[in-house]
Queue: 3 jobs
Job 1
Amino acid sequence: MGDPAPQRTARPRGAWLLASASPRRSELLAREGQDFEVEPSGVDERVTAEPPATFAARIAREKAAEVSRRKPGRWVLAADTIVTIDGDILGKPRDGVDAAHMLRRLSGRRHLVITGFVVVRPSGEIFREAMVETEVAFRELTEAEIAAYVASGEPSDKAGAYAIQGGAGAFVRELRGSHSNVVGLPLEEVRRALIDAGIWQSGTSALGGER
């Protein structure tokens, strides 16, 4: 008899965990051909008086740690994205009035979008931690534009009350840095981290247009 056929080991479904309920982060990673499982964290993300970058870094670490404790033995990616202007954090708007207020603050001005992300080993130890900033400048917005955008419902679950990949793309006059960071995840930096971790699945990438 000949030698037995070699055993084929299938790549496990959901090779690592994304500690986020954000559909935008999932979409960005899925477009890159990544195989992962979504495991949202239960971390309280209410805005505090911390400096913006400190807040984003802390929330990302807490998300990663919380999911890693619940799902030991898995690689975990967690991230937190905030919009900040004048040293204030603009979180998700409470309602349409709050969304309109945020958009008025951003109108005709520059602001920062900051994402802190963390990659945690199966052991629960941090493998990589990084912060990415993108500067965004809005043109002057009219009250009619603000009202129409708020009425669209798009701002309701977005930090800073806008989605650059949606209707608010027309508000942007200038962008310096990572476009995907403003969507919710700095793909170029995350890709490098996951490659170094050995869990990035190579394949078709949409990073050609990444800034």
Job 2
Amino acid sequence: MQVSIIINNYNYGAFLATAIDSALTQSHPDIEVIVVDDGSTDNSREIISHYGDRVMAIFKENGGQGTCFNAGFERSHGGVVIFLDADDYLYEDAAALFAEKLRDPAVSKCNGYLQIIDREGRDQNATMPASLSPAGDYREVSLHNGPGSYTSCFTSGNAFSRTFLEAVFPIPVANRRLGSDAYLVTVDALFGRIEVIDRTVGAYRVHGLNHFPTTRVFNAENLAGLIESMAERSRYLAGWAKTLGHQVDTNRWASGNWRLVVARHALSRMDRSERGPSFVELASAPFIRKDRKLWKAIVISVNLMLL
């Protein structure tokens, strides 16, 4: 089974060669490496050109990560596809591990852990994420609970089946705040089983310019962005659910996501631009998810009531 590794890059020339080298030196015998440069203004083009025909290079005008995903996937051929951020890299056996899991046509996505490193590549003794949800069928849970119904890895720690990607591509590109992988992990459970590799498959580099860490700063702008991002994911999931013949309740999704309820509460206290949830909404939010253990819902609810 061929594995396509699609590297998306924008002005990450300082890290790009490491990402490309990690893709080219995979132990899996059938690898296709595609590098999509999103109109970089640094030395990225020269670095990519240095690899010649060892990689398929796509140079395009700046349009955001989603346009890189779409351009790269359109030119790819692999039955398994990995989208690798240019500031991350894969371990040598990542593609082989993913390919083995995705040989089963019932699997739509497989993910593993990423080791967190700093700008210079030093191990930070932590993984992204801290823990993954177990392998399984999350379709019914996703339809009931909405986006974020299971814990997935970020972009570089995922591999997708071509069958799933052909169904959903091209992905939306208008919302640059929402990482393009978020669209995929929002709906992948609707198309098949989720598999897990219980080990690190690559490295996630934190260097000060990453999208995710900067959006985790607790301020009004990021809280508003979180609320809008979740609304966008809900619209996307609801659209695909309808296409596939499922009925969903998006209001329940919003009221049952206690992190989203807390974000609404915090934003309402900060600048009053968002209507804050009522005391009852705060207290009841943890109990709406059908897969949450009762004791855990009680603990969360008590903490929310103390806000």
Job 3
Amino acid sequence: MPERASYTPGEFAWADLTTTDVPAAATFYGTLFGWQAEELTEPGAGGYTMLTLDGRQVAAVAPKMGEDPGPSRWSVYVASDDLEKTLELVTASGGTPLMPPLDIFDAGRMAMAADPAGAVIALWQAGTHHGAQLVDEPGALTWVELATTDVAGAKAFYQAVFGWGLDEAGGGDYTEFTFGGKSVAGMMPKSPDMPADLPPYWMPYFQSDPDRLAGEITALGGTLLVPPADVPGAGGRFTVATDPQGAVFGIYHP
């Protein structure tokens, strides 16, 4: 069901971009996916800007804050009904809480953690904002994927923290995480083609035509990391790219 009004704890619910240039990012992704940018006006919103498609919230973009030394990056959020308990599981499973639960007005509460290999995962406990209002349609979030240097460790960690299962029926180096009887994410070893200084990472895929958008990505100042290609054994096409500020994202067409 592409339109969503709620998410079960353990599902991916949201994605947002922290960037060095919010207007440029809004223009870049708006050109690719047809998103409209709507900056929140509440005092203390800090420039957080909703990205909408046909009036429905699909993602967001925000400026990097303070002395954040990291690159521009996408964060993906897993739904939780108890952030404190989830962070306890993170610690017990060898991960590292990076940010304690923070109230975001009446929208909900967020926290950040890293898995044992250092991949950052965001957590969301919903208030009035449950997550993306549209998924699995053109221009919307359709998949998330982990590139890691420790596949075995990631399997154990995410099973323990979120209760995810594993589907390795496709063989090869690719693993799908499952939850509630369906695949919710993928995982693969970090490719040697990726920048050496890029740590393990989660990234979102948005649904569109990678062959059509590949030229636009480069014309707009982005970089193709993986040129458009067939998805091995699963059908569809994909590409992986960085935006002009260096944030990694994917495009998938089923």
